[in-house]
Design brief:
about 475 residues, 3 domains, Enolase-like, domain 1, FAD/NAD(P)-binding domain, binds adenosine monophosphate, alpha/beta, binds flavin-adenine dinucleotide
Amino acid sequence: MSKQYDVVVIGAGPGGYVAAIRCAQLGLKTACIDKWIGVDNRPALGGTCLNVGCIPSKALLESSAHYEDINHTFGEHGITASGVALDLAQMMARKDKVVSDLTQGIAGLFKANGVEWHQGHGKLLPKQQVAVTAHDGKQSVLEATHVILAPGSSSVEIAAAPLAEGVIVDSSGALAFDKVPQRLGVIGAGVIGLELGSVWRRLGSEVVLLEAQGSFLGAADEQIAKEALRQFKYQGLDIRLGARVTSCEMGETGVAVQYQDAEGEYTETVDKLIVAVGRRPNTEGLAADEVGLLLDEWGFIHVNEQCRTNQPSVYAIGDAVRGPMLAHKGSEEGVMVAEVIAGQKAEINYDTIPSVIYTHPEIAWAGVTEQALKAAGRDYNVGTFPFAASGRARAAGDSSGMVKVIADAVTDRVLGIHIIGAHCSELIAQAVIAMEMGASSEDLAMTVFAHPTLSESIHEAALAVDGRAIHIPNRKKRQ
Ligand code: FAD
Ligand code: AMP
């Protein structure tokens, strides 16, 4: 007899595991199927995010930032160190330990909440049945009242640069180099390409990023993206825009990467090449044809605003459905779906989902960009404040970047906050809370912020919307 559940979740990334835990909290009998094999060759929960995404990349960004600081920035603080050496194997071992501690933590949470973990591949069959193929090939069928699909995404591969073990790699391979490449190529100057390019540049690589688009970071506010490009180039990231990679040739000493731009065709020879050209949903083999699960032309599962698919009692969340491919977006969808299944009213405000790029300086934003408002013909006011005028940023010796607050010209409601600067992955939460509460720039201006903090720059940028910033000369004169 097949086992019966209230909810079966396929996929245990930040979408699926959060959905499963929330279902269990709500008293639903829940199973979660996942096929991931971790670094230690054992099944691991947490999906892309914990195993080869958010967490290991942030571990290496942190370690490489320490290395860069000790070599380049501590001197200014009067601290000198001799005999500084890089132990890459230790750095990687630390990263792997962070990952395994966290993935085991999810296993502990499953146990504590009574979520059953099935290790293997899950396939949706008609009538909310799910076939499970365990890693040893053993087959079983689970029956559910509701199914949540959270299969996540994988790196896109391109014919121009087929992966070659240890040399032409995707983001997962780039998190596990055993030696610092002398010359490193990155195809794609998107979020992942920039973060991984930064890690290896800090550790000593010469990094060339080849980006097909003529513009840089198209989703970010243009003013912020322009500042980011300036900063990254100053740091030594060789970012070439409008450069489309057309083919690669493996040689004795590395990879010859051919690319073209408006002026002509070029070859760049690198020791290692990272392909970071985007991600595609893992929907192949996810549902039997008889189910009739509706996918779009790119393979994303079609869902409505409550993440319901075209099949009754089947939901889909995370990277495999529309919207930004971000861990927190998938997790919130997981919570929403669990609560909907439990009969509660639940929704997500997709307008305030924050985006963060964990380079240095960091880039973070929530809400709309100035260029989007211009294109929509909406009237707005803008206030900006540079971290160079922040006492705390100056004291830290890390004062590049700015805060930009955009507010509706008529209602003064905050429409977007865009930041480039140190620690703005943390600062952006203030923007999200303000926007979630429907705050005006005046509300932010009237709020008392502690001194000296980086957060004061949000206060000053809000004051600047109305020409009232204290620590910069204002272009607008308040009446
Ligand atoms: P995933 O995390 O991809 O998990 C899906 C899981 O389902 C996987 O374990 C997979 O093996 C399993 N699965 C798939 N199909 C089946 C099946 N049929 N049967 C059983 N199991 C199945 N996002 C951020 O928000 N912040 C960041 O800093 C960030 N950094 C990133 C850095 C890198 C290098 C990468 C690659 C991604 C990063 N992301 C980041 C994106 C983030 O990892 C994803 O948005 C997030 O993991 C998506 O969650 P998910 O649950 O939808 O899918
Ligand atoms: P993201 O989707 O943010 O991960 O960014 C991926 C980037 O890769 C996009 O900006 C694409 O324009 C870029 N890209 C895709 N294919 C190529 C290619 N053949 N050569 C250079 N850049 C590419």
